[in-house]
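Render this sequence as a predicted structure.
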Amino acid sequence: MTNHAKVAEIFPEAYQGKIQMSDKEMTIIEAATFRGLPALLKRYGEWVITKYGIDSLATSYHIAKDKLDEYDWIKHMSEKTGVNIHDFERAFFMAQTMLELEII
């Protein structure tokens, strides 16, 4: 299991703040640990980029990095309720860039 407190020392920006998880507020470290996520590299609202792709901290939504070349994700996610599409778009495009640069 990932030690998110340690990773936050290396990638502090990704771990700053809190998020609403169902009925309670959690720190990003708590939410990432609760979801069993790998190290968070970047975060845009509830959307985080990991070495495996994009994940939502608030839900169990995951997009694998090998699916990031499918551009219909933005349309698909914009049709869902409760999705901050601006945050999702930023995470999506950054993840594509990180994949191109072989960071993820």
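Summary. The two ends are 19 Å apart (CA to CA). The mean pLDDT is 96.
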